[in-house]
UniProtKB/TrEMBL annotation:
GO molecular function: ATP binding; GTP binding
Recorded name of the encoding gene: rapZ
Name the UniProt record assigns to this protein: RNase adapter RapZ
Organism, as annotated: Velocimicrobium porci
Keyword Iron recorded: no
Top-level taxon in the UniProt lineage: Bacteria
All residue ranges annotated as the RapZ-like N-terminal domain in the record: 1-154
Amino acid sequence: MGFVIVTGMSGAGKSQALKMLEDIGYFCIDNLPIPFITKIAGWMEEDDTVENIALGIDSRSGTSLSILEKELEHLDKKYSNYKILFLDASTEVLVKRFKETRRTHPLSGVGRVDRGIDLERKKIEFLKKRADYIIDTSHLLIRDLKSEMDKIFLEGKQYSNFIITVVSFGFKYGIPVDADLVFDVRFLPNPYYIPELKYKTGNDKDVFDYVMSSKEAGCFLDKLEDMLTFLVPNYIIEGKNQLVIGIGCTGGKHRSVTLARSIAKRLDKLEYGIKLEHRDIEK
């Protein structure tokens, strides 16, 4: 029996997640009244006509959220094989999404959207703490979300609630506003001044090999990997569920792309979710 409770912040992608679960064979019910949760679980145990079910629950449940914790405790005792998927995103991203879609946040009323978001975070914090899977969609496209969902529910792969996004960029275009850590690799030899490499990028083998032939590049990667191996577990202890690492050079095409690719490959062995982006490679 696959029994999943899908919840999280309004605007973080819960509806999309339910559609994706439906596509892989889950019977999905959105905005289910909370007192029905244990009834659904009991029905599933007695009737094998539906093998997998996903229930959508969020702040629209209103005052019923106050009894949800007791319902979950009841589920823990009788139906311990259920899972909770929590969709999250940064406040800045959520505000932008609500403005773009011209939707009203369910808890903001006629007030400001960010106040509704803050209130919602407080109301459903207990759900995030109980979640088996947390997906932060702040930097995910629909296809990226589908990939993460497939890993969990279709492929059965080990899933990490901590997502590391490595972004290459050019300082001439500005530092990524959402970067938590920024590293400047302009100390490395610049392929831009090699005529046969100038119009290529760090995704090309000859550019990659040129940058990595510098002993300083390997030394930098060793030190950065060592620092991140130390930092990430401590970020997790403090409740952080994503980290954005900016790797910058002058134009964001050669050195930053090469080093971003290299550190992402090294971090992949640490069993965290890894996402690689090259922000300025086409500029």
